[in-house]
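Q: Can someone sanity-check these two? First one:
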Amino acid sequence: MKFTDITGHKAIIDSLREAVDTDHIPHAILIGGQEGIGKMRLARAFVSYLYCMDRHDGDSCGKCPACLQNAHHNNPDVHFIFPRTGASTKSTDTFLPQWNDFLDRHSYMPKEEWAKTIEAGNTVPVIYRSDATEISRTAALSSFAYRYKTYVIWMPERMQPQCANALLKLLEEPFPDTIFLLVSNEPDKLLPTIFSRAQRFNLKPLSEAEVAGILTGEGIAYQEAQEVAALSEGSMVKAFDMTGEGGEIKEFSAIFIQMMRLAYTRNAGALRMLSDSVAAMGREKTARFLAYCARMTRESFIFNLKTEGLNSMTKAEADFNVRFSPYINHKNVERIMSEIQRAHDDVLRNANARLVLFDFMLKLMIQLRK
């Protein structure tokens, strides 16, 4: 990965490049921003530039031994730390083959795909105290081949409290030529003391033009790329999901349409089975489905205003809303949105998702008739 492979974020690239060129590299760097905007791609490009033996034109060469090692994930002085499962029976090394393959296939780092890769199920992957112990042990050793030793920590907000406290001690008293590179989707969830000890770079969402450019480069037709870019919220994870055959957005759209039709016809039995099916997707995915329901409810209400340019929907969503939107109106929109938010919050608080969803769908059944 090179700086020229990164879309957008030019000012931050310039700052990171200057830090290496002037040999003023912070011992802790925090790259934050929403999922799917290229944070890990940028981190990997920075690592390549840091270790490159023949930098020129403001970028790594891509050909020297260090660049080749980084490209194949076998630089002995670069360590990746990432959320996983099985603290008592598995080490990070157990997941390295899956991790390396994941980096190659999903460079925009969709966390849901990583959870599937390690078969996490309903378990939320975390970074364990044992990971911090291993960092502490290896950081005290001399580097193998290069001047710097680098720890790239993906989603540090998933660190267990004991792990975060142990990492804080390392940041407070860093070893020489040791760099911690934190790549976070939610930097506000880090310990304030960790947050304050890192030089922070906050990445903005990609522009619609940048998203569309990446999609067309992947072979997506121009018109579809433009439509998807408008809905992506600057995230390539969302964009790729919308263009994929079995994408989550398409899955959620089909469930939403089915739910609304069953609720309107007051088919409580079928809604009960649907709530069981949605809950079986797992807690985090269920929460994302409810967030999708909130978006579609807003879009349906806005659709009734008949004002072009205010809606952001796929063609399939727009086609459904032609018939459905009249049922979301000023009499029920606030109550429906409130019930969606309540269900979303209850699911994330570990309430029984099946009961929460069925209760929500029954209330939806009443509201759609207003």
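And here is the second, same format, sequence then tokens:
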Amino acid sequence: MSGMSLVSVIIPTHSGSENICRAVDSILAQTYENVEAIVVDDNGRGTEEQLKTQKEIEKYKDEPKVKYIMHEVNKNGSAARNTGIRASQGDYIAFLDDDDAFHPDNIEKHLALLTKLPEDYGLTYCGFINIIPGMKDEIIHPSQEGDVLFDFLVRKMRVGTSLILMKREVIDYVKEWDESFRRHQDWEFLARVLQRYKMGRVDNVGISKYITGRHNAKQPDVFMKNRIHFLEKMKPIIEQFEKKKQKKIYDVHYSHIGLEYFKAKKILKSIQWALKTSNPFGVFLGYFVSGLNYLKKRVKSVIK
């Protein structure tokens, strides 16, 4: 492996002991061999999940490519990623959620593209398979590339933590993940990255994402607070766009909040959020369409 750049893959874990080895094994199985897997246990020392996680990780005690770091107390996913960054040695950094898994050629494909792109490209992202219990698997292919900040903010792109590989210099620029976030910390982090760097598109399905909903907001009020916190943090970035684009960004996120209230059958609240957008009728109609599409996916899965 002499001369090969080291790739550090950071895995924050919380309540993920059942799947953590699947994530780690997917890193060790990479066709690109010069990797290190850094597992950051954010359960808190001595908790039931911490002890379970440590027991699972014990199988790697003689594997030099795997590091296990434990937080004394639970902090959050952003703090765990920051801990992992500080412990990493790689020329390139990747992140992997504890319930996701890399496909064997994932890192190799990322590096093949990123090392050939112009210097203003700081990262790449790939496609993925969404695996949701009770529903048909969904394959998402990467779409846009280059200067994609606006498309990212209006959610035209499906880009998440596990899908990216970035140069070390990107981390040196953005410094750390924002630890004030409980949700959408990956959106906030990536928005700051995309403000400075272009992003390349790896034409490859490189990740399996296992969607369990264990970290999702269970109540629409919590969902709303998380999304508003994101928008407030994003305000300096959003205001760099022209007014028309600013409005489009807020329209998208306000409509998402309204949809959560609609799904919870809090119709008045959903209407209130639809009215905050520039096309309330279209947004509210979209709530019904989203519901129908969800039911169709469930039906197709049952038939299959």
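A (reply): Looked at the second one. The chain has a mean pLDDT of 91. The CA atoms of residues 12 and 80 lie 5 Å apart.
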